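Session log. Operator J.P. requested a structure for one protein chain; no other inputs attached. Running the standard single-chain path with token output.
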Amino acid sequence: MPGSAGRRLRVAPVALTVLLLIKVGFFLDRRAFLQFAAASPLIGSVPGTRSVPHYRICTRDSLPRGTSLPRRYPGQAVRVQADRAVNTASNTIDTPTVRTMLAKGMRELTGAEHDRDAWAGFISPHDVVGIKVNCSGAPQIHSSPELILAIVENLLAVGVKPQNIYIYDRFANQMQIVKYSECVAKGVQIATAEHSRGSILGYDPFTYVEVDFFGEDDTRSNLFRPVTEKFTKIINVPTMKEHRAAGVTGCLKNLAYGSFSNVARSHQREVSNTYSFIGTLASVEPLHSRTVLNVMDGLRSLWHGGPFLQSPQFLFYPKRIVLGTDPVAMDHFLIEMIEAKRKEEGAPSLFDRSPERLRKGPELDKNFNSFIREPGHVEYAGQLGLGIYNRAEIKEKIVQL
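Structure written below.
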């Protein structure tokens, strides 16, 4: 029937929301209905950038966009480097060294003399804290349990109850591989959005980003439910690695793509919409304002073929963690790190947009990739107000152990 495809495209997102409401037994009062109906559009382009798709953001949160990040330390990052952090021969991490790295980094970032004071500037005993990990490359590369353990220990020292600490990511099967519950204090929660792939009950039906990239049937990406209903603070713990579509996986991508449903639709064939989608998702309230700290895990890294380890030759060991509140500045330093490693290995730049570099399938050749990468998503996020991208305005403090 003529026009039926268009009608399916419009109806599918609504059907998803209705199904969510029915399944969880929600009933909209007048205020909730008005908030839901008043989903405000986002301008489809940012001055000085390429044209981007039209995004529509719907949220129950009334906070204005662009007012929270990068919070206390704009344009700053603290890199803590320790050669003994990783035994590269056995590919194992030294837990005491990681504890020391985290402590040194937090003190350097905040200027506090004691660990508890450093953490108390971000977290109170009454907070419910979500720790956003990255398990997409498990078992080879993921947010290290040793680092998560050290973070949890500091939250407990501040006075947060174990049952109010949640380690979270989207997919249950990936979290089960890493087994965080075996290394942290009893009572700490493990939370996932999808116990089986494609399940929807873990997402908030009232908070989403709507955009049509390729004429897909489902044009909405909904936010992980505990972000809106449970967490009062979020600590973002991404891995530092190359990504075939986005260029890099860092603070912004881990927070955005790891907290929303239906995000892989942004890149098909050689085309990637990660350029604008990552920052748009990361700007949504309350995810935006509740993320108070980023701790990037660069103990292990990938310089090609990410997010998964496609070949052992692409694994390397920066032996660092990077801390800060400005995800844009931190991801800028990540791009520099991956670019330097790719140059050392004789691989093309992340910013190379040559069509002849495209090849479908596993990326086992450093000269080829499935997509035209979009590391420019970091600069775009800066233009959305999520942090500082201009290299002249940002600085990195280096602590060597």
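Operator note: The chain has one domain: 4-400.
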